[in-house]
Amino acid sequence: MDDVLIERRRGRVLELRLNRPDRMNALNTAVIDSIGRAAASAATDNAVAAVFITAEGRAFSAGADLLEAREQLSSGTGGFRRNLYDWQRAFCALEDCPKPVIAIVQGLAIAGGLELALSCDLIVATDRARLGDGHITYGLVPGGGGSQRLTDAIGSRAARWLMYTGETVDAQTALGLGLVQQVVPATEIEAWLDQLAELLSQRSPSALTFMKRMTASGQVSRERLDHEIEAAVHVVGGLDAQEGMMAFSLKRAPQFPSLAGL
Q: pLDDT tier at 40 (50, 70, 90 boundaries)?
C-alpha cells in the first residue's frame, strides 16, 4: 500500500493524499520522499494547475514518525540530521513550486504535520480540525521549518504561545490567528474542494505563478531553516528528548531528567 496516493482531482489539480491512517499519517522517510518528488514533478507539469495535500483517516498528520526517529538516533545524530535535511528539501519543493499548493486539514495537524501544512501556500481546515506545534510535549523543538513558517504565518508572540505550551487550537481559533485561511464544514469539504479545483483550473497559470512569487515571504530563508535543523539535532541528542521519545513509545507522560530536583 502506498504511503502517499497521487491522484488527479476534478479540473487540473494534483492531489497528494497521505495514506497512513493507522499511524495517524505520521511522516516517515517514504512519505517525505513521495511529497518532494511529486512537488518537483508538478512544478514542470503544464497539466497541473494546483496541488492539494489531503489525508486519509481522522488526522491530517500527527507529526514525525518518532519510532523511525528513535531508530535513526540509535547510532548517533547523523541519520537524524540527514532526515531533517530531506524534510527541508521536500517542504521547500512545495514552497518553491510555481503552482498554488493548498493543505486541507480535516483532523489533527500536530508538530511535523503542522510543519507540512505551513509549507503550503494556504491551509483550509474543516470544522473538526485541530492544529498545534506540540514538540515541547516530548522535549523536542521544530526541525521541519515550523519555528520559521509558524512565526511568519501568525507572528512571533502567537507562535511562541503555541510552541511554549504545546496546545492545539480548533479551526475557528486558527482562523482568527491567521493560521488557516478558510474553515469548511466537514460534511461539505469534498464538494467544496471540487469547486475550488475547478476554479483554480480556470485561472491564468502565469498570473498564479507571479502572484505566488510576489507574495513570497522574506522571513523564511534557507539560512534560518538550516539553523533550526542544527538546533533540533542538538536538542534531540539530550536526555530530555530521549525521555520524551521513550515516553511516546510507551504511551506515558515524560519525566524529564532536567526537572529532577527542581
A: very high
Please name the residues in contact with 113: beta carbons below 8 A apart, sequence gap of 6 or more: 25, 27, 59, 60, 61, 62, 63
Per the CB < 8 A criterion, the answer to whether 70 and 245 are in contact is yes
Q: With CA atoms as reference, report the closest residue to 100 among 123, 116, 80.
A: 123
Average pLDDT over residues 132-144: 96
Cell of 120: 503550503
As a whole number, mean pLDDT of residues 130-157 equals 96
In 10 A of CB 28, how many CB atoms? 17
4-186 CATH pick, 3.90.25.10, 3.30.200.20, 3.90.226.10, 3.20.20.70: 3.90.226.10
Q: Angle, to 10 degrees, between the axis of helix 29-43 and the axis of helix 78-96? A: 30
For the chain, domain boundaries: 4-186
Element spanning 225, H or E = helix 222-236
CB count within 10 Å of CB 234 equals 12
Residue 50: its H or E element? strand 50-55
